[in-house]
Amino acid sequence: MLNEGLRYDDLIKKIAYDGDLLEYMGYASPGTDGTNTGWQIRKYTYDGSDNTDVLFASGSNEFDYTWSDRTGYSYS
Predict the structure, then answer these.
(1) CA-angle at 20, arms to 45 and 17, nearest 5°
(2) CA-to-CA distance for 61 and 48, rounded, in angstroms?
(3) CA end-to-end span of the chain, whole Å?
(4) Cα dihedral angle (61, 67, 69, 72), rounded to 10 degrees?
(5) What is the DSSP letter of 50?
(6) Which of 6, 28, 68, 73 could pair with 10 as two cysteines, CB 3.0-4.6 Å apart?
(7) Residue 1's pLDDT is what?
(8) Which pLDDT score, from 0 to 100, does residue 69 have?
């Protein structure tokens, strides 16, 4: 869960790429380790027409996930 009073500008961010393309982006409260829950994780998908979809882990924008498990979640 995100600490109340924090804004996205205050959060730490992790980014993972697949080649040159952004694949995952995660946000968490400062001090949250990548193996601890407290992350909001987004997955970016691309089609052949330069369109990008942003999907959330388990379809949720909550801060309930671990960065280290990002590839194992379903996204919608």
Answers:
(1) 65
(2) 26
(3) 20
(4) 50
(5) S
(6) 6
(7) 57
(8) 98
Alpha-carbon distance values, 22 to 4, 14, 18, 19, 60 (Å): 28, 11, 6, 8, 19
Q: Which amino acid is at 62?
A: E
- Global model pTM greater than 0.90: no
pLDDT tens per residue across all 76 residues of the chain: 566 677 778 899 999 999 999 999 999 999 999 999 999 999 999 998 989 999 999 999 999 999 999 999 999 9
